[in-house]
User: Fold DNA/RNA helicase from Parageobacillus thermoglucosidasius.
Amino acid sequence: MRFIVDKGRLIPEALAKTGKNAKPISHIDFTSSLQPTPGFPYSPELLSFLEGRQLLLEELPFSLHLIQTHYEHGYLFYEKGIVKTKHGWRCIRCGNEDGRFFASFPCARCHTVCTYCRKCIMMGRVSECTPLVASRFSFPQPRYLSPLSWNGTLSKGQQRAAGAVEDAIAQNSELTVWAVCGAGKTEVLFQGIARALEMGKRVCIATPRTDVVRELAPRLRLVFPGVPLIALYGGSEDRGKSAPLVISTTHQLLRFYRAFDVMVIDEVDAFPYSVEPMLEYAAAKARKAESSLIYLTATPHPAWQRDIRRGKRKAVTIPARYHGFPLPVPSFEWCGNWRRQLKRGRLPRNVAAWVLSRMETKKQAFLFVPQIDVLEQVVHIVKQWHERVEGVHAEDPERAEKVQAFRDGRIPLLVTTTILERGVTVPNIDVAVLGAEDDIFTESALVQIAGRVGRSVQHPDGDIRFFHYGKTRGMVAAKRQIERMNKEAAERGLLRTQ
Assistant:
């Protein structure tokens, strides 16, 4: 689309009396300083749809004339989709400045060779001639009286963290909640979310993974039954809707702009949030200028851990699980050149003994491996011992069915890549890692893998074995982190005494 400038106002070429001097919006110097006109008969439907969002024109189910009228009366504003910088381009929607993720094409809309951003192309194309549309108007948010309906109880560690979360929300401050795997971090949010809703605040819980959104949404609907809630992810039926409580993948935050008073980033250590600056940019853009930011993590980045220990990052830790038993600590076991042995069609002797022992005692187990080709080799070997053994990885079309069969107890051993390092909880299992020295098994990944064991109060312990061909810093750091959490939990009196 091209615009002309008339008396300091942008006018789409399609609505202008003449197309003379029409240019792509990125080629025009302009300000977005039009003030709202008192008494203007605005469209509640349009402003409600756009509230807290920054969208492409094609994402708006309203006429261009209606949108332009609201712009001219100061209720909406246009923003360049991408802007020229000293070193190339920057995408305003996703923050991308990497030249490898920009491309050009002959554009029929602006009649030029038009540059666009490939980084966020899955959300619709942002180019030189693409305006982003946002609203200056916000409707008063409802206040909910005692919105929380939950009869559960919090552990001492959870109570302390819940109080810190509530304080951060009330004070519009930042907080990191460092909670061990199985600590019950979702329940820690309930009290703070209730406080926010009582204050008329909009709350967003963002997570890198779609399956977490699908899991959290029904849980939160149960405990906040009178509060409208929407769940946003690729293909979600709630897209375009608005609610005071939003559960979203971090990718979907790209469509929001100054929307939320409370932003909770769950699994901040998880892929892709941990490696994708675009998602951090999206979360920052989706928050209001005055807002609280809560990070939830079981495995903070080492730099964050140092900042927390030195008091440079405000944080609260939950070093014990809800059931009060200590975290199972992994043991290291050298297994030699395991890749060479796999090529010869066999597992290292101690790895084979570990697997066979689980089969004999009929105790379910995960066996984590670093790559898909390794997984296929291991499954081929172990299936000779038990035909129900299966392997699963990210590209496996039967992944969901295999995981459910494992949950149901129909699979004795599940060989897996790091795709199952988090999110799958089985009450009574052991876990081993083959090739724990591989680069993919970072400190964070190994802590998460160890966190699969001992999750239930009926089975609070289990065996965690890191089979390796040479110890790594990540392995040592993971074990040290688990031991440190157990020590802190004991010192704070959070562990059972019997």
About this structure: The two ends are 71 Å apart (CA to CA). The domain at 331-491 is CATH 3.40.50.300 (Rossmann fold). DSSP finds 13 helices and 23 strands in the chain.
